[in-house]
Amino acid sequence: MIKVRELQKSYGDFLAVKKISFSAGEATVFGLLGPNGAGKSTAINCISGLLKPTAGTIEVGGFNVVTQAVKAKTSLGIVPQELAIYEDLSATDNLNYWGAAYGLSGTKLKDRVTYVLDRIGLTDRAKDQPKNYSGGMKRRLNFGCGLVHEPGILLLDEPTVGVDPQSRERLFELVEEEKAKGTCVLYTTHYMEEAEKLCDELAIMDHGEIIAAGTLQELRAEVGEKDIIQLSGTFDVRKVEREVARLNADALVLDTETVMISVRDGAGSLQSFLNAIVATGAVIRDTRLSEPNLESLFLKLTGKELRA
Ligand SMILES: Nc1ncnc2c1ncn2[C@@H]1O[C@H](COP(=O)(O)OP(=O)(O)O)[C@@H](O)[C@H]1O
Ligand SMILES: [Mg+2]
């Protein structure tokens, strides 16, 4: 269980995380979704005890991470965004190192290392040094190192950045497995597809704040049940606004470069929208039709694309 209450973290004068609160329970994948610079790593590093919060409280497994740091840390497994593996030690020795650091020894340690090597798909490369690994293999080992002591709470900071599709699938399976075992998983990502696929609950962050939170269904419902038509190009805002109103649609975003409209029958009405908007003199470079998703929610809330 992770409980974050009114967490703030500043670097000098710059407030990177602004009064965020959320809770994540057992057997749950809780996602922190947001673009680069949103404050995800800062938040997760405060939860892991690596950074000291400027204000607010954090509990993990019932212990305060600042005042009961040692107890809090025993239940935590940490997979940082920057690789935390030793390039010159074999995979086995990396896992031995992290297992021992968390108090495992003897047969227990040996069994866990063997098990984790198998789960991360590195049994046949166990004696090799990570400096000879692909990016995806290093990520899998990094993941294994956070997992070797069977933590009840797992903190994963963008674990799939820069990995090949095969390693990504394996990492997804591992996250699902951990959840099935009852682990509380906190997962940060800037890929909304990952968040939609893996997370039971989410907090969407932007500029250090949580701008929306809830289950996947709740967040989708915030965009509404209607379809989304999204256009990129060059628009005359006043003229487009008039056309959208005339066609009985809602403009969720409307500026000189982006138009996002919510309509009941997107496929059926797309052509008439395009005709009407082109007739205003607009130049359309890209058209997208989708059902409500996290990307459209983010665009609606911030007026910008998540991947921008
Ligand atoms: N050590 C630091 N010193 C100063 N600013 C930092 C530091 N670490 C991160 N930041 C700034 O804090 C903000 C949040 O960063 P970060 O938590 O890494 O975001 P994310 O993980 O969502 O990409 C960014 O604007 C980043 O530039
Ligand atoms: Mg980060």
- The percentage helix is 25-40%
Instruction: Give the SSE order as H and E letters.
Output: EEEHEEHEHHHEHEHEEHEHEEHEH
Task: Please give the radius of gyration in angstroms.
Answer: 23 Å
CATH topology of the largest domain: Rossmann fold
Low-confidence stretches: none
- How many strands appear in the DSSP assignment? 14
How far apart are the first and last residues' alpha carbons, in Å? 33 Å
Structural class: alpha/beta
Rough outline: elongated
Q: Which strand order does the major sheet show?
A: 6-7-8-3-9-10
Mean pLDDT: 93
Beta-strand residue fraction: 25-35%
Largest sheet entry:
6 strands, mixed
Total of domains:
2
Can you tell me about this structure?
This protein has 308 residues and is an alpha/beta fold. It contains 11 helices and 14 strands. It has helices spanning 40-47, 69-74, 91-101, 106-119, 135-147, 165-180, 192-198, 216-223, 237-246, 266-278, 294-302, and strands at 2-11, 14-24, 28-33, 55-60, 63-64, 76-79, 153-157, 184-189, 201-206, 209-215, 227-234, 250-254, 258-263, 283-290. β12 and β13 (258-263) form a beta hairpin. The relative contact order is 0.14. The mean pLDDT is 93. It binds adenosine-5'-diphosphate and magnesium ion.
